[in-house]
Design a protein that fits this description.
This protein is of the alpha+beta class and about 220 residues long. It has 2 domains: about 150 residues, Mog1/PsbP, alpha/beta/alpha sandwich (Protein Transport Mog1p, Chain A, 3-Layer(aba) Sandwich); about 50 residues, no CATH class. About 25% of the residues lie in helices and about 30% in strands. It contains 5 helices and 10 strands. The protein has a 7-stranded antiparallel sheet, sandwiched between helices. The chain has a 3-stranded antiparallel sheet with strand order 1-9-10, with no helix packed on it. α2 crosses α3. The longest helix is centred in the N-terminal third of the chain and has 16 residues. The relative contact order is 0.17.
Length: about 220
């Protein structure tokens, strides 16, 4: 469920001010060293989630949730530094919903690119996706689309929710997306995802010569 961005040199990454009672970020799969303690991360995160919801995990609650988190990390953790992956978790007994965000230098015609990023013309959609204008203060003007897609290898319909923005001031395209065959889960998470979109901004790294002090600005 990662995006296929064109490989270009760029100076962007994302800052996401998420609510830790609802979201858990997956550690990036950058190298073996950063993943050698992934089981410890899963166990510690599971314990903290049970504590934050003030529920008794019993004998099996923590190891069961830890196993779920480890499988999510194996399946969804990003390998690219410009992509972030978060799990929407409403309770320690709920099924996590992966939500992804990525940023890249703006490319191509604005309208065409944003429609492509939200997959507005998906030929596999059960019906034309519902496309709406959508803006946040930090990411700029964009689009939102909810679409339903038939799967080749499963009878269930896949529900996909996607957002895309172009910030002309910094020439960046940002996309956020999720998809699952549990349509009710997407609908129930939609309000929390919408709140999350207003907590995302693009950080611009200063890539001036090395003799200058490193700096970054937020837009």
């Amino acid at each position: 469920m990662t995006e296929n961005w064109v490989d270009l040199d760029h100076e962007f990454d994302l800052v996401i001010d998420y609510d830790p009672s609802l979201w858990l970020e997956l550690p990036p799969r950058w190298d073996e060293e950063s993943w050698q303690d992934i089981d410890a991360w899963a166990s510690e995160s599971a314990e903290l989630l049970w504590q934050s919801h003030a529920q008794d995990p019993g004998e099996f609650g923590i190891p069961f949730l830890a196993g779920t988190l480890r499988r999510c990390a194996d399946a969804f953790a990003p390998e690219r530094f410009d992509t972030r992956a978060l799990l929407h978790i409403t309770s320690p007994t709920s099924v996590p919903l992966p939500v992804f965000a990525a940023v890249h230098p703006a490319e191509g015609n604005r309208a065409e690119t944003l429609r492509a990023l939200i997959q507005a013309g998906d030929p596999d959609a059960v019906e034309p996706p519902v496309v709406e204008a959508y803006r946040t203060e930090d990411l700029g003007e964009g689009l939102r689309a909810l679409r339903y897609v038939r799967q080749d290898d499963a009878p269930e319909v896949l529900a996909g929710l996607r957002y895309a923005w172009r910030n002309d001031d910094i020439e960046a395209d940002t996309v956020l997306w999720t998809a699952t065959d549990d349509i009710a889960q997407v609908i129930q998470a939609a309000k929390d995802i919408e709140k999350l979109t207003h907590k995302i901004l693009v950080r611009i790294w200063d890539l001036e010569p090395e003799d200058e002090s490193p700096a970054d600005t937020e837009s």
